[in-house]
Amino acid sequence: MKSLALTLRRHPEWMVAAVLVVAVLTIGLINPVFWQPANIFSLLRASVITGILALAVLLVMLSGGIDVSFPAFAIAAMYLTVKAMIAWGFDGVLLPFAMATAIGIGLGLVNAVFVHHLRMIPLIVTLGTGTAVRGFILGVVGTSQINIDQMPPLLIDFARQDLFTVTQGDGSAAGLSAMVLVYAVIALGVHLMLRHTMMGRSIYALGGGEEAARRVGFNTRRTTFFIYGLAGALAGFAGLLHGAMIWTANPRDMVGLELDVIAAVVLGGASIFGGRGSVIGTMLGVLTLVVITNSLIILGVDTTWQRVVVGLIVIAATAVTAWRDRKRIA
Amino acid sequence: MTAIAQRLRRVDTNLLQLVVLTVLIFAGMAALNPERFLRPYVFESITFIAPELGLLAIAMMVAMLTGGIDLSVIAIANLSCILAGLFFHQVGAPRGPDLVNLPWPMVAAGIGIALGTGLAAGAVNGLLITRLRVTPILATIGTGQVFTGICLVLTGGPAVVGFPRLWGQIGNGTAFGIAMPLVVFLIVAGLVWFLLSRTAFGINLALIGTNAKAAAFAGLRTGRTVFLSYVLTGGLASIAGILLSGRTNAAKSDYGVSYLLQAVLIAVLAGTNPAGGRGSVPGIILALVALMLLSSGLQIMRFSNFLVDLIWGGFLLLSIALAAWRNRVR
To answer: Where does the signal sequence lie (chain A) (predicted)?
Structure first.
């Protein structure tokens, strides 16, 4: 048992990888439809948005905080950008994504001010900013959904691209969305930043202990602003990408998504006490969660069970993480 | 001695600030809209609606006393009254006089079921937090999902409509001309106040919240005390659920979702320290009155619910900023 705990502490990715393999094999055994390229590709596509948002949550969690405001930020960035594009008659890809990302950064920095300068617990800060931002969007900007006929065509065309298509057994074609590549590039970037830059190391150091990080010379203020700024940027980017991928901009979207994303990050081995967690673990956690929740239908389980399953995953994953880290708390 | 004096002074400034806030809000609303705001109906409706939110805020404060939080209170409230509602539909009938005229022992049994559900749900949270050492945030996010999920599985989505008349009396009736929910609230709040400030249990909770390690070294049974505090939180949430379903004559898996932020807001505004150690029932009551006056005023001025959300969120952030500013001055 002791060596298992040690292995888990060193390589939390192994546990989630094992869970993923078991889940995939079980689901594939019960219903072979799972192995169809169309299903596999759609699972990968479904993990893009949750995945990018999970990277944002990972950053905050690594520093010992938790973020529940990112769905509101994502929706704000998406809705404001699409609204602006329609109002100005602008269509494109790069500039809108830059705008959505900038909105995300701005909102993220608000979180940073409250967390760093006003010394408030991140959960309560982000609960406040999330509610306020969503209230602002729905109460001031608008409540109407922007449908495909109004969505900027270039944006949709961008999100529609496939990396490649294969022909399935029944003759239908299945394509792998190119957005998976976007997700992979972002994940690689965050991974390299966390592992190979001074900023990345300072995020881990901050999660290990703020006072300690300060005493060894890390600039905790800059680190905190970087974390929440980057988390906001990822949320804003993911928000617009989400709108482009589903061809609609709905200001009431993503309600309750924070729980799924946090579940995925925790499942990926990140510790809420900070300092523990990795991009690879998080990506595996996202994929596991997406595979399990999206496969309930092909397993013949009623979709009303989805919440119970997600909740049980959170509890199981946190219990294992807590057991792994029990020495730190005691 | 000086420490105690300091503590008293601190509590007093908090209460004082709240009293000033309440008076200001009241005066502002009354001045802006005297003929519509200063009507007995407005205050009467507050006495029916405020208690359920007040109980949730007290529940949140109890969890915060030990530095925790309970994000599952809404789910517990909904699960409690859904189970009671389904029980009534089983022993009575889904609708009609059989249901409405259920005798009081049956209604009492329903109250027992709801309370028992709340206590059991709280015990699950408590076990996860004290035995498995899962962080309160993640444990209650997970259990909240599971409880809401169970609600969905039990009801399939739609609301459980129709409760016995006696049950409705708890939420809609009056006793000696006072709203029944208010009576329930005052009794429960009084009991919790007594428990927190006049018994060893309450003092221990505050001590654990101030410094868990010191409390453990001082020989307090921290695990058991924290466990009991979550059982109490669950029980309070289920009473809130009883009031809510009694008032609306229905129970649903997603009722009162916006109460979560409001409960946190009231607890923080009442001077509860989310990091633990500080919180009081009188503070909660004052903050509750202030916010109910504010929200009635906003509703009278025909603000949309989304704008009210924006103002709630802004208020939470403002109160954090104020608290930080006060601390800096000291």
So the answer is: none
